[in-house]
Amino acid sequence: MRLHTLSVTAFGPFAGTERVDFDALSAAGLFLFTGPTGAGKTSVLDGVCFALFGQVPGARAQARSLRSDHAATTARPEVVLEATIRGRRIRITRSPAWDRPKRRGDGVTTEPAKILLEERGAQGWCPLSTRLDEAGQLIGRLLGLTLSQFCQVVLLPQGQFAEFLRADAERRRDLLESLFDTSRFADVERWLVARRQDASRALDEIDQRLGRVLAQVAEVAGEQPPPDDGSDRPASAAQWAAGALERARRSHESVEGRAVVAERRHGAAADALQAAALVDDAHRRRRALEQRLDELLETEGRHKDMAAEVAAARLVAPLVPLVEDAARLQVRLEDARAGAESTFAELGVDLALTGTDGAGTATVRPSSAAGGGAARPVSTRLRVARLPSREDLGALARARRAEIGGLAEMVHDETEADRLTDRIAEAERTTVELDDQAGRLGARLAAAPQERDELEAAAAASRAAVAALPGSRRAAAEAAARADAGALRDRLARDRLVLTDEVRARTDREQAARRRWLDLRQARLDGMAAELATDLTAGVACPVCGSGHHPAPAQPAPGAVTRELETAAAEQVVRLAEAVAEATRELATNGAALAAARAAAGGDSPVADLVAGADAAAELLDGVGALAARATDDAHALATFGEAHEGWVRQRVSLDERARGLRQRIADDGARLDDLRRRLDAARGDDSTVTERARRLERLADALDGLATQTDTVAKLEEQAAEALERAELAVRARGLGGAEDVLPAARDEQTVTRLEDAVRGYQAELQSVCRQLDE
C-alpha cells in the first residue's frame, strides 16, 4: 500500500481543512512527523485509519464524536484519502456521523456516516460504491487486514507495540501467516515427517524380510527359528544361523562316507546302462541321418543356383553405381533433347533430332530392387542430336534485332498516322458540332425575351432561400441530435437492465462464495486439534501443551478442511468481489450516460417520432439548400444575360468561319494520311501493326537465345553421358562381363545376398555334418 494524499476537514483537533502530500514527503525515502504534544501527529494517522476502516485505533475509538469541537457548527467532518493498494489507485471520502443544526427551527439533527469509494481508470475517477458495508468489504479485500491487524503491523498506536510482543504464539502466528508466505516452513515440516514415515516403513520391511529368511533357514535345518525378544534381533539371528550351519557341516561329514560306497555301486550300474544305451542310440541316429541325407540331396540343385546367384551379385556389386549413373545422365539428356525439340516446334523450325547409330538397348533396374522392379531402357550407344550451333542461333537472333531497329522509325510513322486519323475524326465531329451550334444559336436568339423573364424569377426565389437557410440548418441539426440521443437513450436503457441483472448475479455469487469460505474456515478451526496432531512426533514437545508424550492425538474427521482448501475459497471470494466492483462501475457509468442521453433527447419521446421530425427537417433543409445554392449562379446569369445576347450574334459569324477552316484542314490531313498508310502496309507485313511486328520479332530473338542455351546443355549432357557410359563399359569388361546390360539383372541388395549366402552355408554345413555322423 502507498499513500498519496490525505485531506481532513473538521476532524479531531483540526477545525478547518488540512492536507498532507505523502508523495512529496516520501520523495527522499523516509519522513518524520514531529511537533509538541497535542499538535495533531496522532490525529493524522487516525485520519488514515478512519478513511480505511471507519474507526480510529486505541482509546480514541471510545470518543463520543470524531468531529472537531473547534469547527464551525455547520462544517461537515470529512476525511479524503488517496492511495494505491495492490496496483489500484483509489480515493476514499468518508464522513462520520455528526449532529448539525436543523435548517428550520431550533435543535440539531444527526447526519449518518457516509462514504464514497472511487477508483481512477483511463476515463478518470469512477465511483465504486457509496454503501458503508460494501465499501468496507472492497477495502478489506484489497488490504487483506482487519483494523487490529493493521494497527499491529502497519500502524502501531502509541503504547501498543508491547501488546503485540506479549501476544500469545497462536495470535502472532495467525497474523504473520496472513502477512507473510510461511509455506516453505510448512513444506519442510511435512518433508521431515514424510522422511520419518518412509524410514519407519523401510525398517518394518527389513524386519519382515529377516523373518522370512530365518523361517527358510529353520525349515531347511529342521529347527525352530530364534524368538523375537525385542533385543538386537539381527545379531541374535546371525548367531543362531552360525550354530545351525555348524551342525549341518557335522551331519554332512557323516553322510559323505556312505555316499562314497553308494557312488561306486551306482557307477558300475551306470556304465553298463550307458553301453547299452549307446548301441540303441547309434541305430536310431543312423536311420534318422540317412533320411535327412536323402532330403538334402534332393535340394542340391536349388542351393547350387543360390550360390551362383550370390557369386554373380558379388561380381556386379561395384558396377551398379556406374551403370545407374550412366542411366540417370541418359534420362537427363533425353529430357534436354525433348525440350530443344519442343522449342524448335514452337518457333516453327523444321529440325530432325532423332536417329541413332544402330546400337541396341539394355534393360536396367534400380539397385534397390532385389531381383525385381520396373525396368527402364538405357542405350549402350549414345545418340547425338543434329542441332544448330550456338553461333548460328546467335546470328539469327541478331538479324531479328537488326530488323527491329529498322522498324523503329516506322513506329513513329504509325503513331503519326493514328494521330492524323484522330485529328481528322475530331475535326469532322467539330464541324458537325459547329453546324449544330449555329442552328441552336438561331433558336436561342428567338427565345431570348422569355429566358430573361425566367432568370429574373429564379434569382428572386434563390435570394429568399438564402435568407431562410440558417434557420433551416439549426432546426435540422437540433432534430437530428434529438433523434440520435433518443436512439442512444433506448440502447443505454436496455443495457442498464442487463447490467443490473449482472450486478445482482455477481453479488449473489460473491455472497455464496463468502458464506462457503466462512463455513470452511469455521470447519477448519473446529478440526484444528487434528491438524496440529498430524505434526506430533514422539519425544518432541507439543506446541500446545508442551508435553513430549502424546497418548491420544486427535484424528482428522472424514472430509476435514485443509489450509489449501480454505485459501482457495478465500481467493475465489476476492476474485468474485473484484468482478462485483467492475460490474458496479459499469452500471454507474451507464446511469450517467443514460441521464445525459435522456436530457439531449428532450425527455422520453418515442424514437420513431424523433426520427420522423429529423427526416422532415432534413428534407426541408435539402430543398432550401438546393435553392440557395443556385443564388449566385442565378444572379450572375441575370447580370450577364445582356452581354451574352450580343455575344450570340458574334458567335454565329465565328462558327461559320471555323467550319470553313476545319473542312480545308480535313482535306490536307487526308492526303498525308493516305501516303503514310501505303508505307505502313508494306512495313508491317502479316502483323496487325508495326509495333506488334517489332514485339513478335523481339520474342523470336529471345526464344533463339534460349534455344542456344538449351543446345549447350544438350551438348554438355551428351559429353557427360558418353563419359559415364564409357566408364561403365570399361568396368564391365574388366570384370569379364559381356556388357552393361548384364549388370543390373544380376544385382541384388545386401540383405538378399546375405540371406542367400546364409542359406548356402547352412546347407553345406548340414550336409557335411550328416555325412560325418554317418561315418561315425
Q: What does this entry look like structurally?
A:
This protein has 776 residues and is of the alpha+beta class. It is built from 19 helices and ten strands. Strands 2-1-3-4-7-8 form a six-stranded antiparallel β-sheet. Strands 5-6 form a two-stranded antiparallel sheet. Strand 1 and strand 2 form a beta hairpin. Helix 7 (183-221) packs across helix 8, helix 10 (320-347) packs antiparallel against helix 17 (690-734) and helix 11 packs antiparallel against helix 17 (690-734). The longest helix is centred in the middle third of the chain and has 79 residues, at 448-526. The model is unreliable at 349-378 (pLDDT under 50).
Question: Which tags fit this structure?
Answer:
776 residues; alpha+beta; six-stranded antiparallel sheet; two-stranded antiparallel ribbon; 10 strands
Short synopsis of the structure:
This protein has helices at 22-25, 41-53, 132-143, 147-153, 161-166, 169-179, 183-221, 233-298, 300-316, 320-347, 390-446, 448-526, 528-533, 563-601, 607-629, 631-684, 690-734, 743-746, 750-775, and strands at 2-11, 14-21, 78-85, 88-95, 98-101, 108-111, 114-121, 124-129, 361-364, 376-379. The chain has 776 residues and is of the alpha+beta class. The strands form three sheets. It has a six-stranded antiparallel β-sheet with strand order 2-1-3-4-7-8.
Whole-number average pLDDT? 76
Instruction: Indicate the structural class.
Output: alpha+beta
Secondary-structure element pattern, one letter each: EEHHEEEEEEHHHHHHHHEEHHHHHHHHH
* Annotation, overall tally of beta strands: 10
Q: What fraction of residues sit in β-strands?
A: 5-15%
Shape: flat
Spatial gap, N to C terminus: 104 Å
| Sequence of strands across the biggest β-sheet | 2-1-3-4-7-8
Oligomer: single chain
Major sheet characteristics = 6 strands, antiparallel
Instruction: Tell me the number of helical segments per DSSP (H or I, 4 or more residues long).
Output: 19
Low-confidence stretches: 349-378
Cα-atom Rg, whole angstroms? 58 Å
Q: Share of helix among residues?
A: 55-70%
